[in-house]
Amino acid sequence: MTLVLFPDQVAFEEMLGMLGYSAEDRDLYKKSLEHYIWNHVLREVVAGLNDEEKTLLQERISSQADDAGAVPREIACLKGHACISDALHRVSQKSLELSLSQLIHHIPADKPEYRERLQKLADQLQPVRIDLTDWLKKNEFVKEIFKLNAPLPATRIKERAERLRQASLQKLAAAMGLPDMQQTAVEITAALAQHLDQIEINLPTLTFVDEGGAP
Amino acid sequence: MKLTFFTQQAEFMDILHVLGMPGLEAEQVSEQLTQALHAEFMVKGLDTLVAEQKDQFRNQLVKNFHNSAALVENLFVLLGAGRFTELVQASSEQFLNRVFAEVMPEADRGSTLLAGLRAKLQPVRLEWP
Fold first, then answer.
1. Closest approach of chain B CAs to the CA of A21, in angstroms?
2. Does the distance separating the beta carbons of B21 and A157 come in below 8 Å?
3. Residue-wise burial string across A94-111, b where 16 or more C-beta atoms lie within 10 A, e elsewhere
4. Shortest Cα distance, chain B CAs vs residue A195, angstroms
5. Is the pLDDT of residue A202 over 50?
6. Beta-carbon separation of A196 and B53 below 8 A
7. Selected residue with higher pLDDT from B22 and A138
8. Taking CB atoms and an 8 Å cutoff, what residues of chain A touch B28?
9. How far apart are CA A69 and CA A61, in angstroms?
10. How confident is the model at residue A213 (pLDDT cuts 50, 70, 90)?
């Protein structure tokens, strides 16, 4: 199911077009927004369950591990369709406002009239309201994004990014012959970042050596 | 000039945003990865030095233990601008691939949507003034 983000979907796409989005990018943008909205809706709904409901939900979906659509379906059984529908309404409102506020920053300086057109669209903004009864029975999109039994993707990404950082710093410390001095590696990478900022200034004053080591 | 692992930092933030990460956390992840990239780049730089240069660099390390900026500048000089540029570009390209293989594996990307965003990210290309 595709969310209709604005009453005037065509105007919304025109707006993306005038901000320089190609047809492919417009489609990507809409899907990104849709993905983001559903992700947050389901997170919000699950977060609103009490411990007993969460346990019950886990029990109910554990036998349906191959069907991610089971999660919203079981939530609807536990809490009613309005629970998801209301969350969708709230999240889509916030997401669309956020999206518009971000798009305003992309308006070219020489196109101030775009701001007025964008504001007009913002005034028309209506959060999503849908009847979920049939949709909950089978929804490929939810199957694609929702996995309750595992940490949310964002959490895993943060953990993996930190692991990568730690491993890289340890490798650097070891390469410098200081395997127990990771803090030194942190300081040196920070200095590298700072140094790179100044390279254009320093470049003419540096004496380079060739690959053979001769100055 | 900032050394980043791709030129479209905003696009990467979009990906994290799509995956439900708030803005501040996305910035932290970006910073973590940038630090990792810098470390990987330094390791590559050290590997590139000939034995004599490595010794020189390590001596500098002992002398200038608390002057990290001087150490980095020393490495930059030892490598030379051409090698430095090559390494930045190679490191950027390899690191970008690692980020998507290790930090954002297929299971989390999950859809053609994120694969499409990945295709838009380009490694760094340095151009000297």
1. 13
2. yes
3. ebbeebbeebeeebeeee
4. 7
5. no
6. no
7. B22
8. 158
9. 10
10. very low
